[in-house]
Specification:
This protein is mainly beta. Helix content is 7%, strand content 45%. The strands form three sheets. The chain has a five-stranded antiparallel β-sheet, with no helix packed on it. A five-stranded antiparallel β-sheet has the order 8-7-10-5-12. Strand 7 and strand 8 form a beta hairpin. The relative contact order is 0.28.
Length: 140
């Protein structure tokens, strides 16, 4: 049975292409592989197992997280439920809908976490305190 949290994310499995020269993963936006038009791309590297990144929710932005090298974990929280997903394959993406609290942590030494975003950066749409996030979702 799907929970409310289960409806706020999904696992994407990208097709692995390539040949004897090596592997190739393609992730196209606009609903082909990524469920939105990609407006921003960034990546996180050089973090370690003791570092926690994210720790925020977004009012408008959706994300796809892909650990293209190494591993990391993503803790998701909708204010009532919590779930952890391990990103450990470069062909796996984690799609996060808006208004989902997220924390990325437990990075392997070689981790490179690629993030695709549906919106350009706007500091005003970030909720960076968990108590304010809970108050905001309670007001909806």
């Amino acid at each position: 049975m799907k929970t409310a949290l289960d409806n706020m994310y999904s696992i994407l499995n990208f097709e692995e292409k390539g040949d004897e020269r090596g592997s190739l993963i393609v992730a196209e936006g606009d609903g082909i592989d990524i469920p939105f038009a990609i407006k921003r791309v960034f990546y996180i590297y050089g973090s370690d197992a003791e570092v926690t990144r994210g720790q925020h929710a977004n009012k408008k932005t959706e994300f796809v997280l892909i650990n293209i090298c190494g591993t990391s974990k993503v803790k998701m929280n909708n204010g009532k439920e919590e779930k952890v997903i391990v990103l450990d394959r470069p062909r796996m993406g984690l799609y996060l809908k808006k208004m989902l609290w997220k924390e990325m942590y437990d990075f392997s030494e070689d981790s490179i976490l690629l993030v695709l975003a549906s919106e350009h950066y706007d500091a005003g749409e970030y909720i960076r305190e968990y108590s304010k996030y809970l108050a905001y979702i309670d007001s909806l």
